[in-house]
Design brief:
The complex is a heterodimer of chains A (182) and B (317).
Chain A: H1 2-26, H2 40-49, H3 54-71, H4 78-96, H5 102-127, H6 133-159, H7 176-181
Helix pairs in contact in A: 1-2, 2-3, 2-4, 2-6, 3-4, 4-5, 5-6
Chain B: H1 2-10, H2 12-31, H3 37-71, H4 81-117, E1 120-129, E2 137-140, E3 153-156, E4 159-167, E5 172-176, E6 183-188, E7 194-199, E8 205-208, E9 221-224, E10 236-244, E11 253-258, E12 267-273, H5 282-290, H6 299-303
Antiparallel strand pairs in B: 1-2, 1-12, 2-5, 3-4, 3-12, 4-5, 6-7, 6-9, 7-8, 8-11, 9-10, 10-11
The chains are: A mainly alpha (182), B alpha+beta (317).
Chain lengths: 182, 317
């Protein structure tokens, strides 16, 4: 039963990964609302952050960020760095949020999107890629964060993370990783 | 086993390693300029993902015109399902035919532009916009295999769109003139006052460094000056919407409305080479340096926007 559940969650994660990659390349360039674009890679990284394995979350954050950087007209390495660090923090935050309600999980994801997007806009301004910090932060960063946080909801519903923020895709129901931490 | 659990639970070691790799990537990317290993990898990724990008463009295009129809679907009655279905089908056909008609019109415009300016160019099609919020770029469906290269200017029938900043074998990324990293040597068509057209964070255009000695009015047409050798001179860039002069300032604050709009699936021209007569001559550069504020107003050309392309290549006397 556990093996079946684990296999199913792995399949879900793989499906979510493929869908997110396709949407990032195919759909994200077509949608721009209030100066923001949906960052599917940030969403995917957040999904992995709740997978119950911090090392995998960090690696996933790195790869998601790298894919984002390579498919957009942005400095390569910046989103990679932010999602790597962000996933480390989020995965450990989610580890701390044992038994959190779905609302708390989404709140955590929304904060993650907001912080990553705002930091991204701030660093672009510092690097000179953006000349107006207000537009960079509140025009593009905030809009991207809000859009991404909204679009993240169906991803997390499909992933089943909201059912138990602590139990991720590869973790069994009783929380073997929790024992490992302890 | 216990060691593995501990390693997995912290993730500290991969964090350190991958942060270092990220910083190195960012450093190398910044230092390698316009071409290098990282740009090559990005071009490869662009090539691999271009079919998905094209598919996304095709899927998204009908929604541009049918958005209102989809938003009204929820308000319909069940008994009208069949009629609604037919209505959708017909509407889709109308949208498709209208799109085809607009495509034909745009192609005619491109041909006119090409013949008017005698441009050496390659036609391409926009297959996607920027996937991040901080830059204004479009992706076109032609690349280095079609003879495109970095810094080539891109236009449509209305005027200048931007400049190629990245080239993959079968796609290219074009930085729009409205991107804040963009700067184009420009001049007021009627007075030949020189300036630099720069994109702004809010997506507007401003003509910078135009001396307050110049004669600039709302409605004036801004064209490329050809100085710099990237853009052919005389291509339309936009129209002046506001002119402000602050006290103690030596330059005007001039807001320009772009002459072009970029939409999915739209056809564009990539100018692959310039002839001598399309670039600014030494006399043009000398005249621009001597009289950056331009000369007397040519009222005829200032009031007729449609003439922007026809007399744009005329040298300043």
């Amino acid at each position: 039963m556990e093996l079946h559940e684990s296999s199913r969650s792995q399949t879900s994660l793989l499906a979510i990964t493929i869908v997110a990659l396709l949407l990032q390349v195919g759909l994200a360039p077509q949608i721009s609302i209030f100066g923001g674009c949906v960052n599917f890679m940030m969403i995917l990284a957040a999904v992995y952050a709740f997978s119950g394995n911090a090392s995998r979350a960090v690696i996933a954050g790195f790869l998601c960020g790298l894919f984002y950087d390579l498919t957009a007209s942005v400095p390569v390495g910046l989103m990679t760095l932010l999602l790597t660090i962000g996933n480390f923090i989020l995965s450990n935050s989610s580890a701390a949020a044992i038994g959190a309600s779905p609302a708390n999980t989404y709140r955590l994801v929304a904060v993650y999107c907001l912080v990553v997007s705002m930091l991204y806009g701030l660093i672009l301004f510092i690097m000179g890629s953006q000349t107006d910090i207000i537009t960079s932060l509140f025009g593009h960063g905030l809009a991207t964060a809000v859009l991404s946080a909204i679009v993240a909801i169906p991803f997390f519903l499909v992933a089943g993370v909201s059912d138990s923020s602590r139990r991720g895709f590869s973790v069994k129901g009783k929380g073997s990783r929790y024992k490992g931490i302890r | 086993m216990g060691y593995n659990n501990r390693t997995q639970s912290t993730g500290f070691r991969p964090l350190i390693v991958l942060c270092i790799v990220s910083v190195l990537l960012l450093t190398f990317y910044i230092r390698e300029g316009e071409s290098g290993p990282i740009h090559t990898v990005r071009a490869g990724v662009s090539t691999v993902t271009s079919p998905v990008r094209m598919l996304g463009s095709i899927v998204a295009t009908p929604f541009d015109g049918l958005g209102n129809i989809f938003s009204n679907l929820t308000a319909s009655q069940e008994t009208l399902d069949e009629l609604r279905s037919q209505n959708q089908e017909l509407t889709a056909q109308v949208a498709e035919l209208s799109e085809a008609k607009e495509t034909a019109t745009r192609l005619e415009g491109l041909l006119d532009l090409r013949s008017t300016y005698n441009l050496q160019s390659t036609a391409a099609r926009i297959i996607g916009m920027s996937s991040d919020a901080w830059s204004r770029t479009v992706t076109i469906d032609k690349g280095s295999l079609d003879g495109l290269a970095l810094n080539m200017p891109v236009t449509n029938s209305a005027g200048v769109i931007g400049q190629i900043i990245e080239v993959a074998p079968n796609t290219a990324t074009v930085r729009l003139a409205t991107d804040e990293s963009s700067g184009i040597s420009a001049m007021v068509q009627s007075t030949r006052a020189q300036g630099m057209l720069q994109g702004q964070p809010d997506g507007t255009l401003r003509l910078e460094y135009v001396s307050t000695d110049s004669d600039v009015k709302e409605g004036d047409i801004i064209v490329t000056s050809g100085i710099g050798g990237v853009y052919p001179k005389g291509l339309p860039l936009g129209t002046v919407t506001t002119v402000e002069r602050d006290s103690n300032s030596v330059y005007y604050t001039i807001v320009v409305r772009s002459a072009v709009t970029t939409e999915n699936n739209e056809e564009v021209l990539v100018i692959t080479s310039l002839t001598d007569e399309q670039t600014a001559s030494d006399e043009d550069v000398a005249a621009a340096n001597d009289t950056p504020q331009g000369g007397a107003r040519d009222d005829g050309s200032a009031e007729t926007g449609s003439d922007a392309g026809n007399d744009g290549t005329t040298d300043e006397e």
